[in-house]
Design brief:
The structure is a single chain. Helix content is 31%, strand content 19%. The protein has a nine-stranded mixed beta sheet with strand order 1-2-3-5-4-6-7-8-9, with helices on both faces. Strand 2 and strand 3 form a beta hairpin. It is globular and about 70 Å long. By secondary structure, the chain is an alpha/beta fold. It has one domain: Alpha/Beta hydrolase fold, catalytic domain (Rossmann fold). The protein starts with 7 loop residues before the first helix and ends with a helix. It binds zinc ion (ZN). The site of zinc ion (ZN) has 6 residues, from loops.
Amino acid sequence: MRRSFRPLEYYEWLYYNKKRVLEFNAKSIEEWRDWRNKLRSKIIELLGGFDYPATDLYPETVEVREFPGYIREKVIFQSDEFSSIPAYVLVPKDLKGRAPAVVAMHGHGYGKNEITGFWDDGSERVDPISRGYQKDFALKLVKRGLVVIVPDQCGFGERREKEDEDKGPHVSSCKKLSLWALMLGKTTIGRRVWDAMRTIDYLLTRKEVKRDSIGIIGISGGGTTSLFTAALDDRVKVAVISGYLNTFKDSILSVDHCIDNYIPGILKYCEMYDIACLIAPRPLFIEHGTKDKIFPIEATKYAFEKIKRVYELLGVPERLEADFFEGEHEICGRKSYDFLVKWLNAEID
Ligand SMILES: [Zn+2]
């Protein structure tokens, strides 16, 4: 008998000693297929299910403006009976026919405006910025010939509670939404993934969008939504996860993170890299700053090695790439944007 006054020890023991029952370990295509179906179903259940009250999209374009090289539309569509999603759609100006499209997911900050050329007071920048942690990346992508859609994630921008709006543009409603969600058996990640899937539903109604060429990219909390959406929705053909891939243990259990990150029970079944394994055989790019303090790089590299196994098993190792760049918690784009464009234009199964 050994006395301990550290209750956390038991949880650490569970983490290190109890096998996560749906971790990726397949040795054949059959085992992989079976594992994938089981883990997908379990994740949907742990996210709180996708039983949001169904409705049509009821899309509406409320503003159209021209900029050098692209057209920006503001659109609104329904995610469910209760939730409308405002989004910007950026369309290359010289576009003929249909083009690949990408869902661009912002992280914590002031929402869709932060990556589409607005300052936090709503005024527009003269030129896109390349500093900060999100760097107007939606504008960088439309300039590469992609149709880009940028929704406000729930809890940010125009999708906040009044009490948070009154406190300023950077104050999110993550905490209130997540507390309500968790007590009702839902999760904020689940809500955001559902919204992302509805965003893809909307993209597929657009005449400029090539139907089989839809990608997703996100930084930080946008990386979270991108990871889970790509893992669960095969309509996503290519994914770029920036500033998020890690282990749950080394990031959200070790560093102070927003409550929107937590999924009750998930570590009984899998770690974060197992969820990323669900994206294979579709192309996946992991981008991460070596000095990221909230998603430590060593755990990112560890997770990346774990993901490699599934791409090797499926015989497509060239579809998984990473860029560990010298930088902090920020998007980079020096290789990931090319990867996105290359694979969205490639003819693959
Ligand atoms: Zn949050």
